[in-house]
Predict the structure.
Amino acid sequence: MAQDDEFASIELRLVKVLHTVIAERSVSRAALALRSTQPAVSAQLKRLRRLTGDPLLVRAGNAMEPTETALALLPAAAQVLQGAHRLFGGHAAAKRFEPATARNVFRIAASDFLDPLFLPELVARLRREAPDARLELHALSAEYDYRRALARGEVDLVIGNWLEPPEELHLGRLVSDEVVCLVAADHPALRQPRRWNVERYLASDHLAPTAFHAGARGIIDDHLAARGLERRIVVRTPHFGLAPRMVAHSHLVLTTGRQYCARYVEQYPVRILACPVEFPPLSYYQLWHELTHGSAAARWLRETVRAVAAGLARH
């Protein structure tokens, strides 16, 4: 009975504290975001730990990290807050989004792996259809915690490719693409295509993008490792847009999607080779958090992103 009484006394503010503390991974940062004090948030965290039977945040070196239970609770807390916003947020949430007059700030974190034309085309379309809106683009990198940025509402969308996208996020598939190799026009493999086999591929000098997470290998190398294979990477770069030019003036091999490579065949002295290792298609997604799932503006943005990606895939 006492437990039922305590459950009945839980207020929306406590759910907000739960979501903010987990997303911020810090009591002090959560206090700032909530416009509260650190002792007050610490007291609420103590109550949350008692209610959930879990520490929620634990020390990991000099930082605090959410427990598995905390990460599992995050989407549910976001859903409660989103529902409360729909209930008590006035009529704004129910209004249709009108891009022609909107003054929203859209924030997207994206890799440039999909197609070098994708972001320019997206910017052009947003400028045409929502001329008073603003767009902020963030680069995905090993230092950028995109899951945290989504949970904190710092970005509306994350666009990239993953073998296994995070389960706590909403997902929309954009395009799938064949994995191929991009090489210079004078690469030895082009002179002896019949000898371009798995062994020669693995032994070649490879150029690879820097992975999204520190210590990660990336999709191509994860797949190779699962088959007990390893390629010889001699250059890693976060500047993926410069990779085709690097390939053009060396004997490096770039392994990525055909759609990306095809944009550079006429621009640089490069050629596309079939990859001798069998890879599953590269799948590109847009990911978003429950916080923005019901937003009319965010839904319009997702539909626009999907339309631009689909349009490029047809050309």
User: Anything to note?
Assistant: The chain is about 40% helix and 20% strand. The mean pLDDT is 88.
